[in-house]
């Protein structure tokens, strides 16, 4: 009986790994999920960045989807403490951040913190206010209130 359980567990594990890393990438969500898998399971942010950069080059993705890839790349660079590289990608999406509504995500504060840590405090404050204004669309943006400690020092 235990042998069957081990075999079943092995098959399940192989299937999960295959789906996480080897299936064809078709949608923007597929690319985001794969990048997240590289980051979470292997701590390989560089591989996740390369994957997002490949996605940006695909003509079938919309401007908004490509913006989401730049956002993810910027967040990954921020986590790697490569602030200038993060800023390069955040600069590309500032207009989107200012104008468009999108769902709150945990790491969105990286945009504000990147500009703040690079000494661009006025820009950081401006972006902070743009993001807080999105509370009307998604109340979870109020989770950014902890940034008050940084922004108003």
TrEMBL record:
InterPro entries xrefs: TPR-like_helical_dom_sf (IPR011990), TPR_rpt (IPR019734)
Superkingdom: Bacteria
SUPFAM superfamilies found in the cross-reference section: TPR-like
A Pfam family annotated for this UniProt entry: TPR_6
Protein name: Tetratricopeptide repeat protein
Species in which this protein is naturally found: Acetoanaerobium sticklandii (strain ATCC 12662 / DSM 519 / JCM 1433 / CCUG 9281 / NCIMB 10654 / HF)
């Amino acid at each position: 009986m235990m042998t069957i359980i081990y075999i079943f567990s092995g098959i399940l594990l192989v299937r999960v790994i295959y789906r996480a890393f080897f299936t064809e990438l078709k949608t923007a969500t597929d690319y985001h999920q794969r990048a997240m898998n590289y980051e979470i399971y292997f701590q390989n942010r560089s591989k996740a960045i390369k994957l997002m950069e490949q996605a940006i080059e695909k003509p079938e993705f919309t401007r908004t989807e490509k913006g989401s890839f730049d956002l993810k790349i910027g967040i990954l660079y921020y986590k790697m403490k490569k602030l200038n590289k993060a800023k390069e990608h955040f600069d590309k999406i500032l207009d989107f951040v200012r104008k468009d509504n999108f769902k709150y995500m945990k790491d969105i504060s990286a945009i504000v913190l990147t500009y703040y840590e690079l000494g661009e405090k006025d820009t950081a404050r401006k972006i902070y206010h743009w993001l807080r204004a999105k509370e009307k669309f998604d109340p979870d943006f109020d989770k950014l209130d902890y940034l008050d400690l940084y922004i108003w020092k």
